[in-house]
Write a structure and sequence with these properties.
This protein is of the alpha/beta class. Helices cover 36% and strands 18% of the residues. It has 14 helices and 17 strands. It has helices at 74-85, 90-106, 126-138, 167-181, 204-217, 229-239, 243-249, 267-276, 284-289, 297-302, 322-332, 345-359, 394-400, 428-446; strands spanning 2-4, 12-14, 17-21, 24-29, 45-49, 51-53, 109-116, 141-148, 193-196, 220-225, 257-261, 279-282, 306-309, 377-381, 409-412, 415-419, 422-423. The chain has an 8-stranded parallel sheet with strand order 6-7-8-9-10-11-12-13. Strands 2-1-5-14-15-16-17 form a 7-stranded mixed sheet, covered by helices on one side. Helix 3 links the parallel strand 7 (109-116) and strand 8. The longest helix is centred in the C-terminal third of the chain and has 19 residues, at 428-446. The radius of gyration is 21 Å and the shape is globular. It starts with a strand and ends in a 10-residue tail after the last helix. 51% of the residues are buried.
C-alpha cells in the first residue's frame, strides 16, 4: 500500500500499515503487530485521508443536466431553476441527499458540507432534517448548514417569494437547528453552521443577526461570495460597495467564516482574507460550467487563506465526484502565470483533505492519516487498466491517470461504508431508481411555471 499521510512532513509511505482502534487511528508504520479483529488487505492500493467536500447543494442533484440551463450564466441559471426547486419536498430531499452523498462516498469523500437554503412555503424544517437522515443512513460525516433566503423577487431579490422566509422565522429555525444537530464533542458525526444564501438573496440585517447568533453558539458561517462579475455589479449598484467590503461591514469575515467560490477577489481582498484567516471553498467544475471564472487559488494559499475543494450543487456540476474535482483543481491553475509549477498532485490531495478540514475548523481531527486522527480513510485499487504503467508514483496516478473514480474501500469513523466499490449501508440501485422517479416528477410539476426541457 502507498499511503499519503498528509502530515506536516508530507510523508508518503510505501508498504505501510494502519492500525485503527474504535474510531481513531492508533498507529501508522511498517510491520505493525497483527492485533486487529478485522484486516483489510491493502496490497496494490493507495490510501489517502478521507477527502472533505466544503460546499454542496444536495437538493440540486434532482436537477442534473436540465436542458434549459445547460448554456446560461449564473443569474439566468438561478432564475430558471428556482421554478423547479420550489417543488422540492422532504421525500425528494432525502433521495437527492442520498444520491449526492452516496456519490461523494464512492469517490473517497468522508466528510461533506451542504448549503441548504431552500425552504418552500409548502414544507417545514423537515426538508433539511431529511438530508441529515440520509447522511446518517449512509454513514458519512456530515456538516449541514442551515441556509436562508429573505429577499424574494418582490423585494429586489432573485428567488420566488414562496421560497423565502421572514428574518424572524429564519433566526428562530437557525437556533433550533443548532440545538438539534450541532455536536461539539470530539469525533462528532454531525456539525452545523449558519449559511444565508448570498448578498443578493438576503437582507443586510439578516446577515448581521445570523453572524451574532452563530458566534453566540460558537458555530461557523458560510455563504456564496465573489462568484461572478454580475454579483460585483449588483453589490456596487445596490449596496454601494464590493462584495467582500459589504460582508465585512455586516461582521462576515474571520476564522469562523468560509465563502463558496471566491473567484473575483482582487489583490487587496486576497490579502485581507489571509490576514483574517477567512476560508474559501474552491469549486472548479461549477465555475467553468457556468463560465464564471477561475479562483486564484495559488495566490489565496500564499496569502494564508484557508482553501478547500468542493463539488458545488449538482445542477451546476452534474456530478458529486470529489476525486474528479481534485483532478480538475490540479490542472486548471496551470494556465496562470506560474504555469505547471502552480500545482502538483500531493498538494492537491492535501487541498482536498486537510485543506477542507481546515476550512471547517476541523483539522485537529480530520485530513491526515496519523495517530490520534479520526479513522476517515479512502483506499483506491490501482490494479486497474486506467493506472497500468503509471505506478512509478502511485499517489499522483490517482489524479494524473484517473478515469475510474470509485474508491475500493472507504472508512468513516472507523467503520467500513464502501466495500469493494459498493455502498455498504444503502442500495445504490434503490437510490438510482428513487432519484430518477422523483427527478422526472419534479420536472413535470415545474412545467406549469416554465418548460425546463427547452434549450437556450
Amino acid at each position: 500500500m502507498a499511503l499519503a499521510t498528509v502530515n506536516a512532513q508530507s510523508e508518503v509511505l510505501n508498504n505501510a500499515d494502519i492500525l485503527i482502534r474504535d474510531n481513531r487511528i492508533e498507529k501508522v508504520g511498517h510491520n505493525l503487530p497483527d492485533e486487529a479483529d478485522t484486516v483489510i488487505d491493502g496490497s496494490g492500493m493507495v490510501a489517502i485521508p478521507g477527502m472533505v467536500n466544503t460546499h454542496h447543494h444536495l437538493y440540486q442533484t434532482m436537477f442534473r443536466n436540465v436542458p434549459l440551463v445547460q448554456n446560461v450564466k449564473l443569474f439566468d441559471w438561478l432564475i430558471n431553476l428556482y421554478q423547479g426547486w420550489r417543488h422540492i419536498t422532504p421525500e425528494t430531499e432525502y433521495w437527492a441527499a442520498a444520491t449526492g452523498l452516496g456519490e461523494l462516498l464512492l469517490t473517497g469523500c468522508t466528510c461533506a458540507s451542504d448549503h441548504h437554503y431552500l425552504f418552500p412555503s409548502t414544507c417545514g424544517e423537515e426538508i433539511i432534517y431529511a438530508e441529515v437522515e440520509a447522511a446518517k443512513k449512509l454513514g458519512i460525516r456530515f456538516y449541514p448548514t442551515r441556509g436562508s433566503m429573505s429577499r424574494g423577487v418582490s423585494n429586489g431579490g432573485l428567488p420566488p417569494d414562496d421560497v423565502v422566509q421572514t428574518e424572524e422565522a429564519i433566526l428562530r429555525a437557525s437556533e433550533d437547528f443548532i440545538a438539534k444537530f450541532h455536536d461539539k464533542s470530539p469525533g462528532a458525526m454531525v456539525r452545523t453552521a449558519l449559511a444565508p444564501c448570498s448578498p443578493f438573496s438576503v437582507t443586510p440585517g439578516l446577515l448581521k443577526e445570523s453572524a451574532a447568533l452563530a458566534r453566540q453558539h460558537k458555530v461557523l458561517l458560510h455563504t456564496h461570495l465573489a462568484e461572478t462579475n454580475d454579483e460585483d455589479d449588483y453589490c456596487i449598484s445596490t449596496l454601494g460597495m464590493r462584495p467582500l467590503a459589504f460582508m465585512e461591514s455586516v461582521d462576515w469575515i474571520g476564522p469562523d467564516v468560509w465563502y463558496a467560490h471566491g473567484i473575483w477577489f482582487n489583490d487587496e481582498e486576497i490579502k485581507r482574507l489571509g490576514e483574517t484567516k477567512t476560508g474559501v471553498a474552491h469549486c472548479p467544475t461549477s465555475n467553468l460550467r457556468l463560465g464564471s471564472g477561475i479562483a486564484r487559488v495559488p495566490e489565496l494559499l500564499k496569502a494564508g487563506v484557508r482553501v478547500g475543494i468542493a463539488v458545488d450543487g449538482s445542477a451546476s456540476n452534474d456530478s458529486s465526484d470529489l476525486l474528479s474535482e481534485a483532478r480538475l483543481a490540479l490542472f486548471v491553475h496551470r494556465i496562470g502565470k506560474e504555469g505547471v509549477g502552480a500545482t502538483n498532485a500531493l498538494d492537491t490531495i492535501r487541498l482536498a483533505s486537510q485543506g477542507g478540514a481546515s476550512v471547517l475548523n476541523w483539522d485537529d481531527e480530520l485530513g491526515q492519516i496519523a495517530p490520534g486522527f479520526l479513522a476517515d480513510i479512502a483506499c483506491f485499487d490501482m490494479m486497474d487498466i486506467a493506472y497500468a504503467g503509471g505506478l512509478h508514483d502511485p499517489l499522483a496516478a490517482l489524479l494524473f491517470c484517473n478515469s475510474r473514480r470509485r474508491a475500493h474501500t472507504v472508512i468513516v469513523n472507523g467503520k467500513i461504508v464502501v466495500k469493494e466499490g459498493t455502498l455498504v449501508n444503502m442500495s445504490e440501485r434503490e437510490i438510482v431508481e428513487k432519484q430518477n422517479f422523483h427527478a422526472s416528477d419534479l420536472i413535470k410539476r415545474a412545467r406549469k411555471d416554465i418548460n425546463l426541457l427547452e434549450r437556450k
